[in-house]
Amino acid sequence: MLRDQNLIPLSHQHQHALALCVRINRASPVNLSDLEAWQAEVAQIFQNEIRVHFAAEEQVLFPAAVKFAELTELVQELLGEHAQLREDFAGAEGRKMSPEQLSGFARRLSGHIRKEERQLFEGIQKLMEAAELADVGARLENALKDATQACALPNESTKLRAGR
Questions:
Q1: Helix, strand, or coil here: 97?
Q2: Model pTM?
């Protein structure tokens, strides 16, 4: 299903986070010498974008979605995943992740995003009236205004190199 324009800002942010996950997966196992740089990048994307993204979902999108019984359980799962991912981001901010934890984080974040895109967004688009979806979109736009609107560029240690 084509993504509704009111959800596209969230989908764009999902693309940024998925790009990070792909790069982590391709670099895995991450060398210990590069681990701090990867954690710095994970912490940066959280501060610049994902922190605001999670808040927008939790304050705007999820409350709108739970009005539909079909989406209530899914929203509860997603909230639990947000809590786990926040712990992962805190680990990165504190530079406490191992290479294995970094890889696990990338898997969890990627799976979470795919669940939102394939299940939540599709469900919302099928169940919500156009006017309600437009209202959600306007509130999301306001809630996302403080997020960085561009992909973070990898640093020297986290950019993919030939042969990786």
A1: coil
A2: 0.89
Percent of the chain with pLDDT over 70: 90
DSSP secondary-structure letter at 88?
Answer: H
Q: What is the pLDDT of residues 52-76, one digit of tens each?
A: 999 999 999 999 999 999 999 999 9
Nearest to 11 by CA among 57, 67, 68, 62: 57
Determine whether 56 is exposed, middle or buried from the number of CB atoms within 10 Å of its CB (0-12, 13-18, 19+): buried
Q: Which amino acid, residue 11?
A: S
Mean per-residue pLDDT over the chain, rounded: 93
CATH class of 8-143: mainly alpha
Query: Residue 130: exposed, middle, or buried by beta-carbon count in 10 A (0-12, 13-18, 19+)?
Result: exposed
- As a whole number of angstroms, the distance between CA 10 and CA 3 comes to 10
Q: What are phi and psi of 103, to 5 degrees?
A: -65, -40
Residue 162, helix vs strand vs coil? coil
Query: Is 26:154 a contact under the CB 8 Å cutoff?
Result: no
Q: How far apart are CA 30 and CA 15, in angstroms?
A: 22
